[in-house]
Specification:
Elements (H helix, E strand, L loop, with lengths): L1 H15 L5 E3 L4 E2 L2 E2 L5 E5 L6 E3 L3 E2 L1 E5 L4 E7 L5 E5 L15 E3 L8 E2 L5 E10 L8 E3 L5 E3 L3 H11 L4 E11 L3
Parallel strand pairs: 5-15
Antiparallel strand pairs: 1-4, 2-3, 4-7, 6-11, 7-10, 8-9, 8-12, 9-14, 12-15, 13-14
Amino acid sequence: MGSFKSIFFVFICLMILPGSLLSTRVRAETQGVKRDEMTVSITTHLGDRQTFQKGDPLSFLLSLNRDAYLLLIYENAAGKLLQILPNPFEEQRLYRAGLFMPFPDRTASFRFKIDAPFGKETLWAFASDLPFPGLEGKPLKNGFKLLTSELSVIRTQIRSAQVGAFGEAALSIFSKPRD
């Protein structure tokens, strides 16, 4: 449960405040067809390259250059992958471009807090003009899904299924025990 809290907290911070943004543009080809680029920007409520201590709250801010479906995957310091979005409480839908979307937002019934395991943690944000394929994993009580494949396999699966506009970004934070 501690890993989930850590992951959830990290994800929320990336969606809430516009700090210095990390954007990664991906131009991909699928079966010889060039896809349109989509820009995805993510940060924490404290900006990028932050170190968080046990118990710190964490939220995320996300921005898109065009309306898109989102897939959010959190990798904790132990290398476990959790699918944060979509989930049973927040199903696939188009998210609006141009806005900094906080995650979790103020109406969410949960908040992220940093907890063990500590170290480098990464939030991956994938955006597409088409819905994402379902990923294999074990549903958790909190609505997230513990993914069973490695990130490289998941990225290949996602990219090969998307034939329209596509983009991805990753933001890493560092967590540690309280001083």
